[in-house]
Amino acid sequence: xxxxxxxxxxxxxxxxxxxxxxxxxxxxxTYAQPEVGKHKGHEYTRTSNPTRDAYQxxxxxxxxxxxxxxxxxGMAAISTIMTMFKVGDHIVAGDDLYGGTFRVFEQVFRDFGxxxxxxxxxxxxxxxxxxxxxxxxxxxxxxxxxxxxxSDIQAISAIxxxxxxxxxxxxxxxxxxxxxxxxxxxxxVMHSSTKYLGGHSDVVGGVxxxxxxxxxxxxxxxxxxxxxxxxxxxxxxxxxxxxTLGLRMQRHNENAMAVAEYLSNHKAVEEVIYPGLANHDGHxxxxxxxxxxxxxxxxxxxxxxxxxxxxCASTKLFFLAESLGGVESLLEHPAIMTHASVPEDVRAALxxxxxxxxxxxxxxxxxxxxxxxEQALGSVA
Length: 381
Hints:
15% strand, 2 domains, 7-stranded mixed β-sheet
């Protein structure tokens, strides 16, 4: 079954009682049992819920995973992954992470005895050298947030297998339409489903997919024990979003490429970072491991902080807002917004400068988007 067919049909058979073709919202906390110790498949919604089950079955199929676990947010998903480890365990992570991930690693789980090392995961030797006897996980974002660096998932998977450590990939920026890390050797893949999976900026969630039996068992236990689950209505909204994921990602890919090419030729732009451009360092790797280049474009303006603020305030269709992956276009200033929790010296080393802006290119008409960028860049000039 092909991707777009799976997104519409897996886990979404007509409802047995009425024949409804849309999975119902089972908005219930508990379930009546016919006798003591015997239930009809569900006991309590923290443990399982038919609407969440349908969503989990669908996203697992799209990531070619055996199992999926839906959480209340992307950070709840990452935090639950971290509970698989114990005091003294070591995690190797990319040096260019979403600010919230860096914050929870450094300000929460380091205090619980986990140790973190940050390396440029585009450098395979750096990854291999960072793994030590206490390492239990290598954590990748690819593309990274916000520098859009591309790491070779298959090559890093080989390193992890050789050293006996798990590989986890945050696949939020690509979605399973553009990239399926489990097929490339990853042990688990995580999404902030708030982004492309939901796709309409109206629901917050996270999900972890895996085919690794031990990882699946630990995640299932931790999810139920801690209760960081996605509610039925949020699961229903995200499942609705999955139905059009393939269609939306096609347009995101096309629009982002057009925006990147336009900005590359604009005198008010110093640098454009987009994996779809041939001059991107990770272009060939992404061509090999993916099925598209995504909807995220990062831009360094030919100006200072004041110019960046003016540009961000001048767009009409690109809304100034955190988050990404919705049908509407967004832009944000990482140094002040999404990555403010990253220390200033770390931001500087990564290239997250005051004139750096991140674009989430939506599915609007591309002529309108480019006209909006043109007038905003003109206001800066």
